[in-house]
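Listing 4. Sequential folding, example run.
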Amino acid sequence: MANNGGVVVRLVSVALGLALLVVLSAGSATGARSENGATTSRAFAIQVAVPGQAGASAAAVSAPPDAAGVGGAFVYPSDGSVVNAGSVTSGAFATPGSSATASASAEVSTVSIFGGDVTVSSIAARSKASANSRSSAADSQGSLVTGLVIQGQAVTPGPGTQFPLGDWGYAVTLQTGTASLDAADARGARAFVTALQVRLTADHYGLPAGTEVMVGYAESAAKVTIEAKSERKPKRVTKAPKRKAPAKKKPVKGPGVGAEKPSFQVRPPPDVTPRLTAGGYVFPVYGPCSFGDTFGSPRPWIASGWHHGQDIFGQLGTPILAVADGTVFSVGWNDLGGYRLWLRDRDGNEFYYAHLSAFSPFAVNGRQVKAGTVLGFMGNSGDAETTPYHLHFEIHPVGLLYLGYDGVANPYPYLMAWKRLEDVEFAQVAGWAPPVSSTASAPKPGAILLSSTDISTADGLDPGSLERALERANREAG
């Protein structure tokens, strides 16, 4: 199948095979371990399947290893008469282990199918699965179809709702499915969702019956095998053992006093979702983006050894927003987070933003900002320079600040609940970045924010296009 639109970037260098369909089955092996191929995820933004023809797909990804698909517009065929989409993003994440997790997402905006017979404002497909020795779970919560119009009439999408398309086809929204495995020797769960499917039952638009257009697909599966405890036979005692003098207790050694070197995961991720406030929070990214649930995943290159936040993938220069009213602080650079900043809301909760390409003029230490204020622009600075453009976002609730940097909460449920702004007004400004040490690997700022109309011609995958858009805007302003 041809890939027409969307660039898939692997987040690690080694790719593993993935079957198109994940089947959960009982293992042959009280600890738990993950089987190869049992904890997986996959997603795609758009897939066009035509009997006897190549068809096309956009932003198709699978994990492991973790992968993200980001791109601009998608059209099929070249004139966009069958499918036309404004933007596509996707992500697939899988962490095998004794506590296995997997998640996938796909987001598509401004979709037109068959010359406008079916149009959609935005689509989000999400799936999530987890498994350990005690339980397993999977769901597709957060999947949405917004602004669906069928042959000129606005309709309300629902789970598995089917809409007729004349005498030539039909559309189905939010098809979902789950499966679970709860056996003595294994735990597992799987979930999938297809946000929108359009199928031809008769020839139409030059395409044969049986043609399918699927927009927004996400599938996740997690499984662990439970290892049985071995039974040990008691040793036979033939004579009474000699009594030994009691061993001297060894003094307990504190950190740095000859103590054994601790493992990477010094403190495990907190399993809490504290209430922040009654409301007033907004999603930290403006525009199309994709994210999964990778909180707590192994990160051996950092001191604590696990992922403290969520990565939200999008295009270079995507505006990054203040999630709440509060105060900006610690604006600057470090080798791990790249261009980064912190935001403290009025209740004392703190939020960390990393890997920006540049800051907005509002990103100044001590600056008071409102929820929705543009603070910076998406990039991949710091240790993310080999990965797709994304925002690394963390939540540090005030009640966990005493734990230091490890006092974090999983951002995933908050991100799913926070309002996404659809219209952010901001003046025409240029991004900036602070000076850094000559020994630092800070790149030249790569994102320029103009205005929603000025950057409409820029391709987020081509940093040069943003510079050309800026030059054009300056010429028009002059």
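-- end of first protein; second protein begins --
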Amino acid sequence: MVVSGVVDPFGGVDRALIPRATLTVCHLFASPAEQRARLDGRDGGNGAAEDGGGDAPVRPGEHCVDTTGVPPDEVVRLILSQLSGWPDPQGAPNPGPPADAGPVPAGGAVLLLTGATGVGKSAVGFEVYLRQLRAGRHAAYVDVDQVGFCFPGPRDAASVHRLRARNVAAL
């Protein structure tokens, strides 16, 4: 599964919430000028929107890629070269369980792409997802912004974050 979105900048990722998955975190960042230019290019955006991910510290064991001036397909190459064959170090396609295996426990490999608005999380995440499919692997793609896009209540950051977290957990 490839997930793009913003992680709590203070608490990071609570790995205990996904105990059976192998989680790989990759933090994307871009220069402030690059972020503004990307946001200005979005449907009349004003370059001022910020999702809070810009100040997130990179924690030990997390990967980090600068997307400034780098096209999405090259960012994908940089990420995958850092991850040593994610999701399977041997690079073998996942054939899935045998037909008579019964229910399969939840788990798998999760790549979480984090970073501020405009650093390329969605574009890069979707390309990583497509490459996994082309390699014959079972894959899913979740854009955290999209699973909280339609919000019925107050639009404060904490409420939207809780909604997104509940929706991703439900997935």
